[in-house]
Structures are given as structure tokens and as C-alpha cells.
Amino acid sequence: MKIKHSIIAVCVLGLLHSCTKEDEHNDQYWGFSNAGLTDDNTVLTGDTYNEVEENPFVQVSEQPVSTFSIDADGASYANVRRFVQQDNMLPPKGAIRTEELINYFNLDYDYSDQTHPIALNGEVSQCPWNQNNKLIRIGIKGKPIPENQLPSSNFVFLIDVSGSMGSDDKLELLKSGFKLFVDELESTDRIAIVTYSGSARLALESTPGDKKGTIKKAIDGLGSGGGTAGAEGIITAYEIAQQNFIEGGNNRVILGTDGDFNIGPSSHDDLVDLIEEKRDYGIFLTVLGVGRGNLNDASMEQIANNGNGTYEYLDNLEQLRKVFIYESSKFYTVAKDVKVQVEFNTENVESYRLIGYENRVLNQEDFEDDSKDAGEIGANQNVTALYEIVPKNNTNFKAVPTFTIDFRYKEPDSEVSTPINLKIFDEGKSFDESTDFMKFTTSIASFSMLMTNSKYKGASSYDDVLNWLDHINLSDKHHFKAEFKNIVLQAKKL
Fold it and tell me: Can you tell me the distance from the alpha carbon of 459 to that of 449, in angstroms, rounded to the nearest whole number?
């Protein structure tokens, strides 16, 4: 497989909290520093998560328009998987972001539009957890690009080699994955390696991708020890990226981490300001999270959201293969600052609720503001959003569109957005009559609400989710969909 993505992979392994070896493995849970349960059954992991306040139902008569940024991250799903499969426990509520669980999977949405770099689809069906309500599914597909047409890549791996990284599920996992990734590179691709602990250091100058022995030797030589000057590492990595910038290529920083920066600027605001400044150089960002016990999930998500980037969590070698090999085309951004604005028809809809995307909701005026940052979508990538709606008693509902979707996106090298839109009609389908796309994404959304004991979960149960999954095609090349069913089965027992 040919990887062409001008990607300055700044693998920052270690954005998290305290970064010393003695803080690791303090109890029965892998890497948990203070594991246990509070009185409200909240898991104390030592990790840091944002509190998520679920989107409420909104009256169409008061606010007929809903606006949000797309989110193509997959970090939450891999993190949830690790809690359930490896730790045998449900994750804390803050670790569960419904949109990231849904968007972890490749749903094979159709792309036939030759005009725009994204294609749109949608449908309406009955809501399975509330028979009086309906569900709306909105799908976005990034333009597929043949491997031999992907531009050359410029990677800078920024690797945290501080003391906290010295475990198999952190630095060693990353080293194994990077070496696999190196095998996929071409001579026109380039990789530089920057490391940081007490200070930042250039461990490998930008090197052609066919010099695989040289690159792997540099990766093998990485060890852990010391503090974390992460901010300095980011600055250095972006400097290297700029020095080796490929015009017309895909230039990317991959920032992977286990903790917080503890040397140099460390507040959320300082880090976000730094990343936003670098964002304007035309260098994209991927954030990688590793390990457990001091994982600052909140910080990494925020950095990715503000840096023309995406956020992934790495829990095993297969996940590394997914990110770096199976779906590596997502590193090539086909559209940035993708915004969605849904206008509900007052004839058909009483109220609506956006499921997930709590951290990506925008003000209505942000939609046409090209200075407002939004999410990115890579080649062949898909993004899904679900709404639950309370319908009006309109017997003629099929005659008018239930909602109109307006999108805005920018080409990767442009600062001016392009609008497109799609009208969706309610055909009166039951949930059983809906597509597998609807059934699968709805199963994930319901599973997410069950894990958090959401007040919006309705009449659904784990058995319902398993039943829905039994009636759809779960086959995919790498068996991720089948794995999801096994995760539901395990979570049911917890």
C-alpha cells in the first residue's frame, strides 16, 4: 500500500500529566493512579476528561436551525474498547463521545459527486428507543483518492521520551507501529523525528522514505527518561515541518501523548493558542493518545479541534495498523473547516436533539464566518450525525422536506468556503425498513447512551442493540464491526 501524505507527523507521546516512572502501575488497573468508584459510580482513573452535558431537545418554533462542526475523531471508541476489553469495566462518562464512537467505522458511503470533495446523504426513520419519535441520519463522504495519486508526504514524528513513556502500551507500542508505517513509505515521502523530555531534540533529520533502515534505526534508539517539555517539542517540530514543506503535498504534524506538558506553557489556553498559530502555516495535525493513568484526553481533544486536526487513541497494535496503514488515506485532507447547518421544517418537526457533538456545536452566525475553525475530513473518510426529532401530526409529511442541510467547506489550501445543500424527505420508513447505515449508527448511539445511563436512552437495552446488530451485515475487511458486537456483549455483563 502506498502512503502519500505530506504529513509532518509530530508524534508527541506524552502530553499528559505527571510524567515520572514511579507514578505508573499503582493498582490493579493498567496505569491507573487512583482507580476505584465514587458514590455515583464514576470511575477514578487518574485520567482527565471533559465533562459532557448532553444536547437537550430544542423547540423548532424557538430555534429552527442547528449548527455544528464535523468531528472525524475516533479516539473515544478505542479508549472505550480498552476500558471494556482490557480493564473489564465501563468507562467514565467523560471518556464517551458518541460522535467519535460512530465515526470510528468506515461505512462505505457512496461518492459519486465529481464537483465537490465531499458527497452527502441522509434518511429518516422511526426511532427504535422511542416509537413516537423519529431519527435523522446525515452522512458525509470524503473524496476517495487512488494511492498512486496521493501527494508526497512530509512527516515529523515528535516523540515524547519522558519517564512516563517507559511501558509497553506507550513508547514501545508507538515504536512498533511507526516501523510498520515506515515500510509503506515511498522515496518521495520524508520523515523527521523530534524527541523531547527535558528539552526538544532533532533525533533524525528529514529523510527520504526509502531510507527505511536509517529511519528504523532512529526509532529503535528511542528510550524514555526525564520530564516533558512538550510545548518546546511542538514548536521545534513545526519548524522542521516548515523547513521541509511540500507545496501541493499533505503536510501534517502527528501529536501523540500520554500526559500533560509539564515544562513550558501547559494551560489549555496556552496550548490552544500555540496550535492555532501553527495551524495557519498549512500544516495539519493528528493527535495520538497512549497509555492510561495520566491521560489528558480533554487537552488532546481540544488541541486537535483547534489545530486543523484529528484525535486518535492507540490501545493496541491493530489500532496502529488501522490509523497508519488500513485507513492512512485519511491523513490526506480533502476538505477543511466543514460545517453543517440543519434547518427543520416547522410543518413536520416539533423539536429536535443532536446526538453527540456536544463539543462541536456552533452558533448560527458561525456558519458563514470563514474565520471560524471547524473539522476536517480526509480522503475516503466518512462522518455521520444523528438527530432525534419529535414529529408534528402532519398527515401530509411526505410532501415537504423534513429538513434541509446546508454545508460549507474549504479546499485544503483555501481560506474561502464553498456552500452545498441537500433536502431530505421523510418517506415514512420504520426502523426495520431503514438502511444498514441507519441501523448500525443507531446501535452505536444507543450503546453510548446505555453506558452513560443517559436520560435520553428511552426504552432501549443492551439486548435491543444486539438484536439490531443481528439484522445487519457486520462484515468488513478487518472485522471492526464484528468486534463492536463483542464489546456490547462484554459491556452488558459489567
Answer: 11
Q: What kind and span of H or E run contains 424?
A: strand 418-425
Q: 388-425 burial string, b = 16+ CB within 10 Å, else e?
A: bbbbeebeebeeebbbebbbbbbbbeeeebeeeebebb
Exposure string of 58-69, with b = 16+ CB inside 10 Å and e = fewer, is bebeeebebbbb
The secondary structure of 354-422 as a DSSP string is EES-GGGB--GGGTT-TTS--EEEETT-EEEEEEEEEE---TTGGGSEEEEEEEEEE-TT-SS-EEEEE
List, for residues 362-416, the tens digit of each pLDDT value: 999 999 999 999 999 999 999 999 999 999 999 999 999 999 999 999 999 899 9
* 415 contacts: CB under 8 Å, gap ≥ 6: 370
DSSP code for 292? S
Alpha-carbon distance of 333 to 290, in angstroms, equals: 24
Q: Give pLDDT tens digits for 172-197.
A: 888 888 888 888 889 999 999 988 77
Q: How big is the chain, counted in residues?
A: 494
| CA 456 – CA 388 distance, rounded (Å) | 10
Estimate to the nearest angstrom the gap between the alpha carbon of 5 and the chain centroid.
18
Q: What is the DSSP letter of 203?
A: E
User: Cα(188)–Cα(149) distance, rounded to whole angstroms?
Assistant: 13
